[in-house]
Design goal:
Elements: H1 2-9, E1 12-18, E2 24-29, H2 35-40, H3 66-72, E3 83-87, E4 101-102, E5 108-110, H4 117-123, E6 127-129, H5 132-136, E7 145-154, E8 160-163, H6 165-172, H7 175-182, E9 186-189
Parallel strand pairs: 3-7, 3-9, 4-8, 6-9
Antiparallel strand pairs: 1-2, 4-5, 7-8
Length: about 190
Amino acid sequence: MAKVSGMVKGAQIVKQEYLSDGTVEVTMQMSLHGGFAQLVLPQEIKQIEPIKLVPSLSVEPPKPSPAIASKTAEKPTSEIYTGLVVNAIGLNARPAMSPKIIDENGQEVYGSAFVSREYAVQQGMSGYAKDITAAQSNPRVTNNPLTVKGLKTEGPGNADIVISNADAFKLRSASEHLSFMKKCRVMIVVD
């Protein structure tokens, strides 16, 4: 607590307004990243070792019939995403230092267990935007983010967002996704 108090005392004054009733309103600013984040982020956020890709076995799947093959040839089987954008507009979602994304069954899809403390301290567990286009083009999620729609909010302060089981399955389906989640490449769009 003493360290947090010291950081708050070191905050910069950005606005000072004298009101007609004789009181003074002071607005101060300080970074929530770096040292402050190191102190207040949950201890379960630990440094995560690099994720190793598991090579797939060289077993060929059975060949589909020609009619099915022409339909499946049009769609790639697995797309590699560079980040996650969660559309939480209209859900009254609120920004938080340690948000969670959960599926309809209450299973965590993204949260403190998925991120590396190094990235969470440097840039926060997620970024926030007020516009879906701005979130999708944010450098944090780079050039090919998976965009999902939030269904509702849960938890203290409406900070935890529930997504569909189908969207949760997309996130859990490949180790490449664990890599971008580890690096906190998540943007949440709020009202």
